[in-house]
Model the fold of this input.
Amino acid sequence: MTDQNVVVGVDGSVIAVRALDRAADEAERRGTGLHIVYAVPDRDEAAPVLASAVGRTRGRHPDLPVVASAVEGGIVQALVRESENAALTVVGTRGLGGVTAVLAGSVSLRLAAHVHGPLLVVRHDPPCDQDTPSVERGRRHIEGLPVLLGLESDADAEAAAYAFEEAERRGVQLRVLHAAAHRRAVPEMPSPIPATSPGRQRRDQDDRAEEAVPRFGTGRLREEHPGVLVDIRTVHAGPARALVAATREAAVVVIGAHHRAGPLGRRLGPVAHTLLHRSHCPVVLVPSLG
Done:
């Protein structure tokens, strides 16, 4: 048992219940406790929602340590504060103040921009409001799927480390999609032997160099996690589209949280935005320490 809890924000909505269930699974997998947080204008209003959340979790995970807190004010400030000592912070794509889609409103935007440590955004998990055999089969199917890592550069070192640990915890394969820089084609004179033309040789050399980047970058992690099987693929264009497609057969996708300055404050990069809106599995954003 570690000292760091998994923290989850709830508000009584259906998607928040899905986030709660996922957070409880994550806490049990990590051997830590679960901290349920509900932000309300008046603490007296929180009792029914928190009691229901605690009861549901203890019914599904009777040995899991669970604490619940009602906080006055905004959920963003509460989760950012709690995330400082959390192993993982979990939210759903809807709810928590009426946000219609994650990062579509200022509440979720500020949370993603300022949360400390990994943030798990729960999307299309199997329905959790019914304990049916089909739901259990769906959960078992998800547990056997690989962990997907979107790797852009050395700045994603923390995301890569998290993905290796996640794959090891689950006992599944780690699938890495490396986004290579787009190369502009340089016109050249036709060659009677295209395979040996200078342009083709340069492209082949660049391809080999780009494919070696993620292997070199994950070399230390492979040594630290020898039991994790790794499949690395390089995409030269459209990394967001490639990642979204790959999430159809992934238990979770892990990406680095790259922030950019904008007129309304810090915002996430386009790949993260696309995944959070279109991913077919839960998304983990890992802040860069650089």
